[in-house]
Amino acid sequence: MAVDLAPEPAVAELVTRTAQFVRDVVVPVEVANDGVVPSESVRRELQAAAKEAGVFAPHVSPEYGGHGLDMCARAAVFEEAGYSLLGPVALNIAAPDEGNMHMLEAIATEDQKARYLAPLAAGDVRSCFAMTEPAPGAGSDPDALTTRAERVPGGWRIDGRKWFITGADGAAFAICMARTAGEPGDRGGATMFLVDADNPGMKVGRHVPTLDESLFGGHLEVDFDGCVVPDEAVIGEVDQGYRYAQVRLGPARMTHCMRWLGIARRAQDIAVAHAAQRELFGARLADLGMAQQMIADNEIDVAASRGLILRACWELDQGRSAGLEVSMAKTFTAEAVWRVVDRSLQLCGSVGVSGDLLLGRFLREVRPFRIYDGPSETHRWSIARRVVGRHTAAARA
Prior knowledge:
Blueprint: H1 9-32, H2 40-53, H3 71-81, H4 87-91, H5 97-107, H6 110-121, E1 127-130, E2 148-152, E3 155-166, E4 173-179, E5 190-196, E6 202-207, E7 219-230, E8 234-235, H7 241-277, E9 279-280, E10 283-284, H8 289-317, H9 323-347, H10 349-353, H11 359-366, H12 376-396
Parallel strand pairs: 1-4
Antiparallel strand pairs: 2-3, 3-7, 4-5, 5-8, 6-7, 9-10
């Protein structure tokens, strides 16, 4: 059976335009601002430029102003966008908005799409996904969910505390995961609710200080205190929130991998350019064996990550859950991206550590990805459990 990994011509052309846009328009803004979007006005300016270049919102359907790419097609485009820390924001494919758009387009009602998805896809507003809680609440174990929603006349009352909610500062609305059945530790029994930012029962608190700073809107504490929402705020069916969340989580883990792979390539390009012109011990750095090993290992990590991402994306495009493939791709890519950036910084020596290059910023940004979207240890547990389960089933057959 023939295997063709090349994107279709229309997608290849979008990849080329995205790469050019990121290098010509986005990278200069990134370098001038140390890899951080400095303001809402700059976000809007970058997105306006992306719209003009025809590369905006490649993941949403044309109905909402996008290109309607499937997961495999997104891989190459998102990787090029991720070549700059600001590229995903410019294309409106940054977390958490990109994942929220994907989920809303898949399961929201038409009224919910008009009210929430359409302005989000257009870049007119931002959003957040409020699931993670302070210990002992939901984190790597979503069944530990403590935030609760109780029925009240005409709707629901939500009470609970969330933390590390990415993008909450300035978000127009939150998608809140709350328990509607059972107790913390029970499987299932969660429901997702749309909560407008002006709801008096939702209060955005402090920014949690973190290594990374490039995710626009920060990571914040959010309190739901007597937060009343109407029945129309429920996304999908009551008590089925975890099932619907899978529509978001698998693809979102892959799009995270795609974006960070772009930064790994950027770090490698910076390191190779430095090694090719830096002379020491009577030779170019690029001609020394230890430097060559690091350059080669970087290429291997990038290529292997890309292959695992594409395999998982292909499974998702077939309508499968792809839990095993997603966990393998996420775990490997998160660790490979760290290795690539770390080696690249090492190759550049003191200038790599300095602020003259963005490698130090890249290193701080990619390190948390080994924790975000499920830590590597949780994914390895999931992989092992699936493999052992498959072996056990085969032995019994």
